[in-house]
Amino acid sequence: MSRKLGGNILVTGTNxxxxxxxxxxxxxxxxxxxxxxxxCREPEGSGAEALRELANENPKRITVIKLDTAYExxxxxxxxxxxxxxxxxxxxxxxxxxxxxxxxxxxxxxxTGGCGMMEVYQVNVVGPFLLxxxxxxxxxxxxxxxxxxxxxxxxxxxCRRSAIINISSLLGSIEKCPENFHIAPMYAYRTSKAAxxxxxxxxxxxxxxxxxxxxxxxxxxxxxxxxGKEAPxxxxxxxxxxLSVMSSLSDKDSGNHLDWQGNSIPW
Length: 267
Ligand code: NDP
Description:
By secondary structure, this protein is of the alpha/beta class. Helices cover 42% and strands 12% of the residues. Helix 3 packs parallel to helix 4 and helix 4 (114-149) packs parallel to helix 6. 46% of the residues are buried. The structure holds NADPH dihydro-nicotinamide-adenine-dinucleotide phosphate.
């Protein structure tokens, strides 16, 4: 993979699953000058051992930042910590990866209450919304840096320049629902990812003038705590695919929902 990703990159939910693998592979596909801000809820906790090890092995490339996306105060503190480190270079890539599907396995109507619904929305929709809102000045700064390099011209959008990637799901596709509802009757999760897709579309429209790209990516059905052991894809293959897709994104992809192989997913 050519070096089409780089600069300052922030990923949420990096202590396990796809987030941890994203940090592992980002280190490999970016250069020594690039930096990964790996966010997780409890950096000192027992669930973040693998991330701490990775950060210790790459002290100049990875900074672990405490971030619970369910709380705006935590988002605010993480934004400040990032701002102090990136300065005028800004943030090139925000990957909103953290997500929950509160009830393991299927979560049918009978097992879904108002509180569970709100909890899933908080992490899967409100968190990514607030994080992008708080980080917007840093994303704008990164986009402007590239404009300066192009003599003040707008230039193209890309994940190297300034972008928001929202990790979504095929289960958020309204069109695909009749095909897969019976396998995964998850009201909270499905509706939250459909909302995340709309949010991506709004961000694409809103931030285009600042040359910030916004795309939703479905990672495939992956062997993680969330995906379960029976999933067909390893996190290594999923992340390799997603990073390759991110590397190739340009103006035409902003506001779209793609899968880990770059195929378009209907709304
Ligand atoms: P995992 O359950 O394996 O990991 C979820 C990650 O999100 C963990 O690091 C977890 O941290 C973090 N997280 C959860 N809540 C919060 C929060 N409030 N603040 C910060 N971090 C939080 O899931 P995956 O790695 O499989 O999923 C990653 C993304 O991919 C999700 O958005 C998911 O919806 C999406 N996806 C996954 C699929 C799959 O098959 N695996 C399929 C389609 C989409 P902690 O350890 O602290 O809980």
